[in-house]
Amino acid sequence: MMETRTLSIWRLVFCVFAVFVLLAPAASVSGQLMVDFYSLSCPAAEDMVRNTVRSATSNDPSVPGRLLRLLFHDCFVEGCDASVLIRGNGTEQSDPSNQSLGGFSVIDSAKRVLELFCPGVVSCADIVALAARDAVALTGGPAVEIPTGRRDGRVSLVSNVRPNIVDTSFSMDEMIKIFSSKGLSLEDLVLLSGAHTIGSAHCGSFSDRFRKDPTGRLVPVDASLDRSFAEELMERCPAGFDPSITVSNDPQTSSSFDNQYFRNLMAGRGLFQSDSVLFSDARTSNLVEAFADDQESFFAGWAQSFVRLTSIDVKGDGEGEIRLSCSVVNAE
């Protein structure tokens, strides 16, 4: 019913643009992204995505965090080309780190609406980037203007995932290596880690932070982890770290995109080892302190880093396609 109402609303909205779109030439796709790329070929494209995300979020508050994580896992492997959406054996979705990803149904819903009004025009890669952008804004974060014009990739291999994704147990050097390979700086690393201000994680993703003592009781491995926070995590997650149980990345303001994440790090309440190391490492501790103290500074930096994230290895003319369905490549 929700999808039917959404389609009816957009039929009315699109009538305003129908004649103009039919007469206007479609915007050409090139390797150069540009703001308002769809202004002629699909003027309401960004509004359609935004309203789809808003509708999904109203039904499920976990959607924004899922969409933001989906973008990271897409862009870090094969670039921002929606390769993580392709289903099938041996694809990126087959890797264990991607099997807990969510938000696919939101992307599919937006794609169906766009295909109804602008068939074959808007790429799945752009939908993923726009949906993540809107997820941040809808949870109180900055509204970021991002360029569009990405094409969808045709390659999705499970073997490409492990070498390119940051693991929650990574050291600072390991994270710097991955981020640097994507053209992202040390400051980008800290700013984009701020994405953990929303969303949740499965217990198994931070089980490395605990061990069993001789009596079989769980104890923290890292002494810098706040004791009360460690107790909360051990109470929330049973001894076996049941992978079906989730914990908020930021237990203080879990549904708000804000700078509480950085305050948590300073208080020893970072959920992952890869979070905590940002404050314990001298190379980044000053940035953590700065963003914890000034939310506007975090938001301003986030906007710039987010644009760089969504521009990683984008596909242009001759390098990709506009998929008709986000889960499968087009037939030859």
Automatic annotation (TrEMBL):
Q: What is its main location?
A: secreted
| Signal peptide location | 1-31
What does the cofactor field's note say? Answer: Binds 1 heme b (iron(II)-protoporphyrin IX) group per subunit.
- Keywords carried by this UniProt record: Calcium, Disulfide bond, Heme, Hydrogen peroxide, Iron, Metal-binding, Oxidoreductase, Peroxidase, Secreted, Signal
Name the cystine pairs. 42-118, 75-80, 124-326, 203-237
- Site entry (Transition state stabilizer), positions: 69
Enzyme class, first EC level, given as a word? oxidoreductase
Q: Which CDD domains match?
A: secretory_peroxidase
Q: Where does Ca(2+) 1 bind?
A: 74, 77, 79, 81, 83, 92
Q: Which family does it belong to?
A: Belongs to the peroxidase family. Classical plant (class III) peroxidase subfamily. Belongs to the peroxidase family. Ascorbate peroxidase subfamily.
List the protein's name: Peroxidase
